[in-house]
Structure formats: structure tokens, C-alpha cells
Amino acid sequence: MSDQQTVTATSPAEQAIADQLRASFEGEVIDRGHPGYDEARTVWNGLIDRRPAVIARCSGTADVVEAVEVARKHRPVVSIRGGGHQVAGSGVCDDGLVIDLSAMKGIHVDPVARTARAQPGVTWGELDRETQLHGLFTPGGEISATGIAGLTLGGGLGFLMRAYGLSCDNLRSVEIVTADGTVHTASREREPDLFWAVRGGGRGVGVVTSFEFDLQPLGPEVTGALVLYPYENAEAVVRAWRDVTLTAPETVTPEILLWSVPADPAIPEELQRAKCVLVGGVYAGPPGAEAAAAVAPLRELAEPLMDLSGTMPYVTLQSANTWRFPDGERYFMKSHFMDELTDEAIRTLVEWDARRPTPESLTVIRTLGGAVGRVGSDESAFAHRSARYNVSIDAGWRDPAMDDEAIGWARSAWDAMKPFSSGGTYVNFAGLGEDASELQGAVYGPHEERLERIRAAYDPEGLFARAAHRP
């Protein structure tokens, strides 16, 4: 037997988990000997290379219950994988059981009630495609390949949050399987503690098997600003952008990225992959004069390299940058919430961004406020509603030999920005597993104690405890 075969052999304990699952499972049970094992354990972030004992690819809620009951009996490490990508890769674990929800893709839209119910394997692009048939949407992320589950459970920052709130603010209810194998429906009226926890609590209270969202009228056409400014003016452009954010209407959620010009055939070749400052914003309403006026200040920060602003389908906008984050490349992201952007903070940010190790790496500043801040601070587990900005340091690279350099740059830039932080970190941009210890108190802030009580109430034996405390 080869060394590789020895490493990947299924142990008797692992075989017992797989055999018990296969006895009653409708979905697919994938163990180390399965021909699809390597494909099934692979995730979006190529930096993550974990080898679970068994992957239980669920077909529906009944399969999730079976997987949880098997986990209760055998007590492996458990991770839960939804659809789309998750930077830290915590949807897979070494030598444990992955409850894989990626095949659960059901979507139902009720255009009269303006609600949508979607299963956890759905991505935002898939949900948008269905809701936009009716000129409706619910606030999602900024990349169409992002899964609805991870983004919503972690809060859900997005292009339209100042007008419509976070993704989790638009939840009506969830169906969730808790550690005892019970299926619950949680909402503001039913099991409110559980519902409070899933709105920003990340993970660790159970396996959410469907999300019911409120929908709002928007699209199919929207107006957006998308302007590329010269990188040599980066500090001045960021300061001007900051000043615009202080008076911007809630119908616009300004965003600025220190990045590189896309290698897009529509862009002159001499500009492609050069560093730039990219400014964006989407108007939360119909196209027209009011929309154009609302995004105009974002187009006037300096002399642009290119101005790609205009009207486009909402689904096109949401998928515009997806190709720039391809499957299998390597990613590391960490973030700070900030109450203000001082000139010193901007200077420090630009200085560190100038050291970016690859054209794929970037620094992003997102503007909060508006509808995000109007939700009561104690109404959900998301703990950073008073922050004005989120700053994310995002390393992206291809060559494994660059791992230390790329991650080191992002960690160092994050450390340099820490004096300007309000002390908070967004769980969806929180580093890797080894960053978990420094997240104590930073992700959930004053809500951490209540969240732990709720987790303990629904999972007294700690079945999901490992998952709960990872980024």
C-alpha cells in the first residue's frame, strides 16, 4: 500500500459513521475511499486543504437531522458547509464530519407577499436571478458566488445596506436543526432567542436548512457609480471619498477599493493590472435624474482614469467582480470596524496598501450607517451597528510559495490599522483558524455572553462548539 493510500484509509470509527449514514441517508455519503472525495473536500479558497473523515452531502432537512443524530452518537468534529465561498474555509474540517448543504438549492419566491424562501446551498447570484424576475431583491453581498447562508449568518454587508440594512436584517424566519436533532422554526415571534443568535451570530447554534427573507422592489435596472482614479493620488482620493460619505444620502452606500485595473478587453491594455483607486456606489431606487445626482459626488473626487458609471441590470452589477475571485486561488482577509477615518488612518492605510504583494490583493473600505444603524443594538447578534466604516485587508495570490509573504502583508497591514479601529472585527473577514484567539470579544462585542448562553441552551454537549469559535 502506498503512503498516500495509508494516509487516506478510512478508520473503523470513520467507517461506522459512513455506514450509519448510508443506512438512512437520501443524499450522498462521501468517505476517504470515495472516487469523488478530493473534489468534495475542495473549497473556493485554495489555501484550505483539509481532509474530513466523512462528508454528508444532504438532500434536504431530513438528511440534516440524520447527520446530526449520527454526530451525536459518534462525536466527531463537525463542520457545516453551505453554498458559495467562505474565506476561512471553516466549512470543512480535518478528520471529522462535514454536514454539506451545498446541494440544497431550493428557492421559492412569493411576489405578492414579497418574500423568498431559499435553502442554504443557494448563492446570491442564484437567489437574485429568481427574485429579479419580479423586480424584487433582498440585500446580499458584493459577489454573486457568495453563499446566502454564511453571509447572512455573519451579518451581511453589501452594496445597498444603508438603504435596506444587512442581509440578516431582512430575515423573517429560519428553519434550523439544533444539536438534539430537533427541527425548529425561529422568528421574532417563535423562539426569539434562537432567531436573535442566527442574525449575526455566525455559527454554532445549529444547522440552518432554510432562510425566509423579506423582499424589496428594486431593478431590474439600477444606476451605479464605478470610477477608476489614478493610484498616485490615492491618499487625496480616499480623503475626498471620506468627506463625501459624511453627507451621502442613505440611498447610496459608498465604497472605495485600492486595487488593480481589471485585465478586461474593454479596458485599454496599457491600464490593465496597474494599481488604481476604484470608487463605487449603487442607487437604491429606480434609474433617473435623482439616481444620477445621488451618485454624482463619487464621480467627482479627482480626474478619473475611467468612468464606467451608468445603468445596468442588478444581476449584472452583482456578478461584475465575481470573475476576479476565481475558485482555487489563495485568499486571506481580515477587517476592522471604524468609527471615523482620520487623515492619519488614511495615510497609514495607503502606505500599507502600496506594499501589496500581488495585483489580486486589495484594500476595501465600506460605509455603514443608515438602515444598519437604525436597528437596535440589542435586536440581533450583529454587534457593530454604530460603526461608520469597515476596512478589509484582502490578500489574493496564486503561488503557494507566496503564502507567508501574502498573509504576512495582510496581517501587518491589519496590525497597523488597529490603533484606528473601534475594536470590532467582521466575522466573515476574520482571518483563519489560528486567528480565533484574538477574536475573543472583537466579533460579538457585548453580545458574546448572551450568544454563548443561547449556544449552551441549544447545544449543551457542545456538538457544534468547535465550529462556533472559528472564523
From TrEMBL:
The FAD-binding PCMH-type domain extends over 47-218
Pfam families linked to this entry? FAD_binding_4
Q: What are the UniProt keywords, alphabetically?
A: FAD, Flavoprotein, Oxidoreductase
Q: Which InterPro entries match?
A: FAD-bd_PCMH, FAD-bd_PCMH-like_sf, FAD-bd_PCMH_sub1, FAD-bd_PCMH_sub2, FAD-linked_Oxidoreductase, Oxid_FAD_bind_N, Oxy_OxRdtase_FAD_BS
Cofactor(s) the protein requires to work: FAD
Q: Which PANTHER family match?
A: BINDING OXIDOREDUCTASE, PUTATIVE (AFU_ORTHOLOGUE AFUA_1G17690)-RELATED, FAD-BINDING PCMH-TYPE DOMAIN-CONTAINING PROTEIN
Which family is it part of?
Belongs to the oxygen-dependent FAD-linked oxidoreductase family.
Please report the name of this protein according to its UniProt entry: FAD-linked oxidase
